[in-house]
Amino acid sequence: MTNLNLSISNIGALSAKDADIKWEEMTTKYQSSVKRLQIRIAKATLNGNHGKAKSLQWLLTHSFDSKSYCCQKSNFQQRQKHCWS
Description:
Elements (H helix, E strand, L loop, with lengths): L1 H8 L6 H31 L3 H13 L1 H21 L1
Helix pairs in contact: 2-3, 2-4
């Protein structure tokens, strides 16, 4: 319980620059994870291992990283659309 209180009290200590850096780190982490799964799916399909490809597709569509990357990407595109229109 004390660790939770300490982390909540330190939220205001982060600057906007720190928050942007953490956001970029998360985006690159999610992007690399999704890209790695996509490459594995392509290799399995090329090798004729369709069962493995299907299981990797399921993993890609249900993983937290892919969902987070998708949300970040769509939010970024919506912000660009509203800012530049």
